[in-house]
Design brief:
2 copies of one chain form a homodimer. In chain A, helix 2 packs across helix 20 and helix 2 crosses helix 22. In chain A, 40% of the residues lie in helices and 13% in strands. By secondary structure, chain A is of the alpha+beta class. Chain A has a 6-stranded mixed sheet with strand order 2-1-6-3-4-5, with helices on both faces. Chain A folds into 3 domains: 199 residues, 4-Layer Sandwich (Aldehyde Ferredoxin Oxidoreductase,  A, domain 1), CATH 3.60.9; 173 residues, Aldehyde Ferredoxin Oxidoreductase Protein, subunit A, domain 2; 188 residues, Aldehyde Ferredoxin Oxidoreductase Protein, subunit A, domain 3. The first copy, chain A, is built from 25 helices and 17 strands. Chains A and B meet through loops of A and loops of B.
Chain lengths: 615, 615
């Protein structure tokens, strides 16, 4: 039986041409789907010197072999390109239903090339040829309005829409691509790339079944997976309290940043917790496609002056970056800030970080009211943050400065060493001083200081990831941690290629049986784990070619300053962590490149040749 | 009796015109001489937008009312301009005899404007008109050769020469101006400014007596000062062991940086101490004009392969920045590195820091052999440092990168937060984690992370500065330290205007009596202390106009990472230190400017008007 052998829609926005192209069987076999397939595809297309916001950048929307199946939480999609925020590998992963719907419409992914002269949107409806449409009437609309408008336009309530808001139109460097109300491909500015191409939205609708190599085995394994996930305590916690269930433990352990990673304690952040949300503004949990966890939140702001009633509620990352990072504990006000990000299509994490950095720079006298257009910036002031979010999305006044992200903001004011980022991506709200695994994850993630290319925050907090197990060493440990980090990264890289949500953990044997039943390929667990490793190293090679070397594997020096909070004055031993990590990965200590031998043994001799025999 | 009422030589290198101009009596009275007079003079001439290496920058060589008198250690001169390294106030102070000789030739200072088309040198000989001469035969010579050549040229062994080496010719951003063999106006790149003007050297010779308002009082007070200095234990320590007498105490207290301010211990630095020098390569102490301290060193390198015999020996700052910062403890090799800096006219401190940063970046994988032209950079390798010093001076290959200073080097490799500087000036070899007073001095000095605008290292080490007294709080103390720092800065600012060497401390009453007897002005101690404060605030205003604001008053974040050495894991409390400092100085917390009220009360209403009523 044939499994994963579908097609891509290739859109050239410069010429307006739309072409179907079969999946490359070799790429699919070695790099699966999602971010893995995209990385291999783009590796062949994109090199140094490409303007991320120019027509040469290629934007991919990818599903994978599990997407749209009955396996749990497999409705996600990946958006990939060179990031305008970081200049290196950009990828962002979104939930909802859009990914599954794209599969139902008969496509495994979309490749977007070139730039349109005027705004367009793309429709992909099963039974009709995909088509580009004039989007001048949509330009300037927020993402919710855009979704509604395209559903009306196509006359089908079940149409799923991914779109940018005004932030993407204005190429805010951390603009998101939103879909299914408040789901976001948030990080690394994929919305800015979409905006640069003048592609406002992609609407998809279909009813095809997803092809599977072994339907019986798949169906049986999917049921087993569902049972495992259902019994998992963390699924239940996520359902009840969303990802903000992390808040209280994070405060206790010094994991949740305050005041842009500076010292003051802010125990009031507990008012932003998942429990607090449940007891106050939560209306209901919101699931993505095929998900029985439903960590998504819907909340009411009826009692607030914001003029909205029910909105998509905030994640842990959002209550941290737009809450505790600003020394704000008003949950409804933070939820509204998150809503503004959703409307305008902004990554809440980078947006919150940028505003928080601006507050710090204001406090420390790097900028004054003359720079902000008269706005005083004070810790605890969420109203000003609301105003700034609007200004950022429109690149108005000081918002135009903040739209450039923390690295560039800090450089503008001569405060480079205050910015908390790795390779240009703002850190997630997990403090590596509290969890040493996150230090390595931030330092080595292919997209910068990101928490989704290895959720070591879970392992370091003592939770189990069945594929990897519990790390007995504890959250401050150095020795032995690199091995765990590498394995988590490999598995999560496979998840992001499959694509399965990283919040479900049906165990490695079950995941591999699902993949094997879907694709018809190997059922060997080690082969699949090595596929994750192969993809991880491919992304590394992609970045090496764009200038990433060993010096880039690091934390900002600010994160090596001990804190008096729950991280108890500990700081990660970067030298030892990195040394062990390089040994584990067999990366070259001088250049930061994966060794020729490792690449060859992973079945990527072509990449080895490129890295080691190139000019 | 008239005292300090001399003249300046104004040289326009563009037109070739030389004019005498009397000292401005108002400026002299309010800002004395040296860096104070220069600051007021240049404040009226130089504003934002001036290219420090262009013809608009004005370079001043200044003496002061005490220079060339019989008061102890008053032979120094100041060189001032906008710094090409930092873009703000630049000043550098040199010993030797040149300053006194300039006074003997009848001048209090030299103002150099414009740029010459071809290399020139300037002669100022008493009894002859000052003259510009073709220097094409000198271009490319080292500073020792230049001094020798001009002595021959003028046929007088007692001619004193200040000149640049090839580093200044090539506008290395931290090029020094050397005089009297190994004396250097080292910091802030005054040699690059001189090089940009194509002025190779200034030779001076004269026999005039320095005018004094009250000769009897002066002579009597000078004798008293000499007695006090002679009895001072620190004078004796400096004479025996030079400034490197600091080494052992510095190691013990964690004051001396290793491996570019990173963690590894390096107790071997004791081999670089003043005692070690005395026991090995020291031939004799070398005094400047009128100095009974003689902290200068002459050393022999006869037993080395460097092809030189007797050279000017290294200071504490040199053994630290070109020694322990490179993890080198070979004293003769470090002395030779210092000699190379002297020959080519390089600031040892910034040069050593730049090389040390490069070693760190190499170790951490920010740069590789491809960047350095094949040179591996390894801790402990002084031979490579010798090679790099030659390359820097000539801006050859990787030397051209290092010639730009630490801030720009780090930015080039995306490692901004690894550079240890304040406002562009490389920190001196005093770690503020060991001595909290140095934290404030670095953060607020008008020329960046400098140790000479307030020698809090002495006070924090428990030594007495008679003008200020012992600070009982200790080296880690926060509360109360700002007041002491401000007073030290005020007094040292007066010293640098008088000019008296900061290594002698004849007590405030005696210093003020000397100044009063020389100038005929007030004998009120408070008035003179406030004159120091007035000048300090003038330099601040100069910098405010060039963009300095409160955010600039800071340490790099790296210096807030605790160390396991003798600084015992302590770090300075910058927020509290700065708050107290701002209160003490009455600087505005929002803009970082001196308050209108303080400027007016200090007798500088014009500066107040400029700062607060300007556009």
């Amino acid at each position: 039986m044939s499994g994963y052998m579908g097609k891509l829609l290739v859109v050239d926005l410069t010429s307006g041409e739309l072409v179907d192209e079969p999946l490359d069987a070799n790429i699919a076999h070695d790099y699966v789907g999602g971010a893995g397939y995209a990385a291999r595809f783009l590796y062949d297309e994109l090199g140094p010197g490409i303007d991320p916001l120019g027509p040469e950048n290629v934007l991919m929307f990818m599903t994978g072999p599990l997407v749209g199946t009955r396996a749990p939480s497999c409705g996600r999609h990946e958006v990939c390109a060179i990031s305008p925020l970081t200049g290196i590998w950009g990828e962002s992963n979104s939930g909802g239903f859009w990914g599954a719907e794209l599969k139902f419409a008969g496509y495994d992914g979309i490749v977007v090339r070139g730039c349109s002269e005027k705004p367009v949107w793309l429709s992909i409806e099963e039974g009709k040829p995909p088509a580009l449409h004039d989007a001048s009437g949509l330009w300037g609309l927020d993402t919710y309005e855009t979704q509604d408008r395209l559903r009306q336009e196509l006359g089908d309530e079940k149409v799923r829409v991914a779109s940018i808001g005004v932030a993407g139109e204005n190429m805010v460097l951390y603009a998101a691509i939103m879909n299914d109300h408040g789901r976001a491909a948030g990080r690394t500015g994929m919305g800015a790339v979409m905006g640069s191409k003048k592609l406002k939205a992609i609407a998809v609708r279909g009813k095809q079944r997803v092809p599977l190599a072994d339907k019986t085995l798949f169906s049986q394994t999917a049921k087993e997976a569902i049972r495992i996930v259902k019994d998992d305590i963390s699924s239940q916690v996520y359902r009840e309290m969303g990802t903000a269930s992390f808040v209280d433990m994070s405060i206790m352990w010094g994991n949740m940043p305050n005041a842009y990673w500076s010292e003051p304690r802010f125990e009031e952040a507990t008012n932003l917790s998942g429990v607090a949300m449940m007891e106050t503004i939560l209306t209901r949990p919101v699931p993505c496609y095929g998900c029985l966890v439903a960590c998504g939140r819907e909340v009411t702001l009826k009692e607030t002056p914001y003029g909205v009633e029910v909105v998509d509620g905030p994640e842990y990352e959002t209550v941290a970056t737009l809450g505790s990072m600003l020394m704000v504990d008003d949950l409804a006000a933070v939820a509204y800030a998150g809503h503004l990000c959703n409307r305008h299509g902004l990554d809440t994490m980078s947006a919150g970080s940028a505003i928080s950095l601006a507050y710090l720079l204001y406090e420390r006298g790097f900028l004054g009211a003359g720079d902000t257009g008269g706005l005083p910036l004070r810790w605890g002031d969420i109203e000003t943050a609301h105003t700034l979010l609007e200004m950022i999305a429109r690149r108005e006044g000081f918002g135009d400065v903040l739209a450039e992200g923390c690295q560039r903001i800090a450089a503008r004011y001569g405060a480079e060493d205050l910015a908390v980022h790795v390779n240009g991506l703002e850190a997630a709200a997990h403090d590596p001083r509290a969890l040493s695994g996150m230090a390595l994850v931030y330092a080595t993630s292919p997209r910068g200081a990101c928490h989704m290319q290895g959720d070591m925050y879970s392992i370091d907090m003592g939770l189990t990831i069945p594929e990897v197990g519990i790390f007995p060493g504890g959250r401050f440990k150095t020795r032995g941690k690199a091995k765990v980090v590498a394995r988590v990264q490999d598995w999560r890289t496979l998840y992001n290629s499959a694509i399965m949500c990283v919040f479900v953990n049906p165990t490695a044997p079950v995941l591999v049986r699902l993949l094997s039943a879907a694709t018809g390929w190997s059922s060997d667990i080690v082969w699949w784990q090595r596929t994750g490793e192969r993809i991880f190293n491919l992304k590394r090679a992609f970045n090496n070619r764009l200038g990433i070397q060993r010096g880039n594997d690091r934390l900002p020096e600010r994160m090596l300053i001990p804190m008096s909070n729950g991280s108890r004055g500990r700081t990660p031993r970067m030298d030892m962590l990195l040394q062990e990590y390089y040994e584990e990965r067999d990366w070259d200590w001088h250049t930061g490149k994966p060794s020729r031998e490792r690449l060859i043994s992973l079945g990527a001799p072509d990449i080895a040749g490129d890295l080691w025999d190139g000019a």
